[in-house]
């Protein structure tokens, strides 16, 4: 879930310069922008769970992000925004349909939100023997899209995995369960929430959805619910499809406490491992990493945390060492540019990924990501 801030003040602002100093700075820049090391640009900030920080204080922060000077039309000065691009060897794609299949008849689909422009995490895994896993399900506005994909996979979900109870993750599931619709069926739902009072205090914007989804899950009598899913739990649905819960939920502080309270999953299909991070935060992710949840992990594909915004640390991604990345995002987050969006952290994530041995980045911009 995006945590919106007043980016006008959280953007990377250059302190007021004298006319002579400002002229000298601009003369030193190329006409199409500026490339500068972080230490050469004052007040490089990013948004993190403890608020907006100096980039140099970040755990696993990159050493030399690219900077761009942008004119501030409010008349208060210029701003610096981080920009970056992937290596030319790291293609941005929607699918792998033009390549040799990596799955033995199965399909993984990360759903773009076709119901609104908002970000979401929604994924459907279907193995060649018909087993189906859904992750989160996304926004309520995208419910019909999700239901149609599930119907195309046979109409029955063996296991529905919840990372954490925020609207852009469980809105569609809540809509499906509350409407009582019968055109799809669900075998089991896996989750692990804290007490309601914790969300009221630490994730107040989402506490209403937490309350609603918690209540409806507790009232189900025709769907098995596993409300205490935790580290080491492993479910084998078939020879083709299984999943493991990587962590127990933990409580942290700060603006991303709700994100950090989630579960991560290792979904294995046809021998390929898809690591689901949900919106895992840097603080919580580093705690889990220190506890050994990534020890001996195999990561073929990783779902980029928090839709590409400020999520897990660079060290966390490096420990995963993914071959492919999947970005469940939207235009606003993924193609963040300029002053208003510069605090989202997307470009910092891109720069991190650009330094890894990633072959391709699959991105849900207006179309589903499909891997077969």
Largest sheet: 8 strands, mixed
Q: Give the tally of structural domains.
A: 2
What are the segments in which pLDDT stays under 50 over at least 5 consecutive residues? Answer: 1-84
Number of strands: 20
Query: What overall form do the CA principal axes indicate?
Result: globular
The helix/strand class is alpha/beta
Name the strands of the widest sheet in spatial order. Answer: 6-19-18-17-16-15-14-13
- Approximately how much helix is present in the residues? 10-25%
CATH topology of the largest domain: Metallo-beta-lactamase, Chain A
Q: CATH class of the largest domain, anyone?
A: Alpha Beta
Radius of gyration: 21 Å
Average of the residue pLDDT scores: 81
CATH superfamily of the largest domain: Ribonuclease Z/Hydroxyacylglutathione hydrolase-like
* Distance N to C terminus: 28 Å
* Proportion in β-strands: 15-25%
Query: Total number of helical segments?
Result: 12
CATH architecture term of the largest domain: 4-Layer Sandwich
Question: Which descriptors would you attach to this protein?
Answer:
372 residues, alpha/beta, Metallo-beta-lactamase, Chain A, 2 domains, seven-stranded mixed beta sheet, 12 helices, 20 strands
Task: Briefly say what this structure is.
By secondary structure, this protein is an alpha/beta fold.
Written overview of the protein:
The protein has 372 residues and is of the alpha/beta class. It has 2 domains: 7-83, no CATH class; 91-371, 4-Layer Sandwich (Metallo-beta-lactamase, Chain A), CATH 3.60.15.10. It contains 12 helices and 20 strands. The longest helix has 13 residues, at 167-179. Mean pLDDT is 81; it is low at 1-84.
């Amino acid at each position: 879930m995006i945590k919106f801030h007043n980016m006008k003040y959280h953007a990377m602002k250059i302190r007021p310069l004298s006319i002579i100093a400002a002229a000298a700075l601009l003369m030193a820049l190329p006409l199409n922008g500026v490339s500068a090391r972080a230490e050469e640009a004052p007040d490089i900030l990013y948004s993190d769970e403890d608020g907006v920080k100096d980039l140099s204080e970040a755990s696993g922060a990159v050493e030399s992000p690219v900077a761009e000077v942008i004119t501030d039309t409010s008349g208060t000065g210029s701003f610096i925004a981080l920009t970056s691009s992937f290596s030319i060897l790291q293609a941005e794609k929607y699918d792998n349909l033009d390549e040799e299949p990596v799955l033995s008849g199965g399909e993984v689909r990360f759903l773009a939100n076709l119901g609104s422009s908002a970000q979401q995490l929604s994924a459907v895994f279907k193995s060649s023997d018909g087993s189906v896993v859904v992750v989160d399900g996304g926004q309520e506005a995208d419910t019909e899209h999700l239901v149609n994909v599930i119907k195309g996979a046979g109409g029955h979900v063996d296991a529905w995995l919840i990372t954490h109870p925020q609207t852009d993750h469980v809105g569609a599931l809540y809509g499906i369960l509350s409407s009582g619709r019968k055109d799809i069926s669900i075998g089991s739902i896996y989750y692990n929430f804290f007490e309601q009072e914790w969300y009221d205090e630490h994730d107040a914007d989402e506490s209403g959805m937490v309350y609603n989804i918690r209540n409806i899950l507790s009232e189900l009598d025709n769907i098995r619910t596993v409300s205490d899913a935790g580290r080491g739990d492993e479910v084998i649905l078939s020879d083709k499809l299984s999943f493991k819960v990587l962590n127990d939920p933990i409580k942290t502080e700060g603006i991303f406490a709700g994100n950090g309270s989630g579960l991560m999953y290792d979904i294995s299909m046809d021998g390929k491992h898809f690591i689901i991070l949900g919106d895992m935060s840097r603080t919580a992710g580093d705690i889990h990493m220190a506890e050994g949840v990534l020890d001996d992990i195999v990561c073929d594909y990783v779902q980029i945390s928090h839709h590409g915004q400020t999520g897990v640390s660079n060290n966390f991604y490096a420990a995963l060492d993914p071959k492919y990345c999947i970005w469940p995002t939207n235009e606003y987050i993924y193609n963040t540019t300029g002053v208003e969006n510069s605090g989202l952290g997307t470009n910092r994530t891109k720069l991190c990924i650009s330094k890894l041995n990633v072959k391709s980045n699959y991105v849900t911009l207006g179309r589903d990501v499909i891997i077969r």
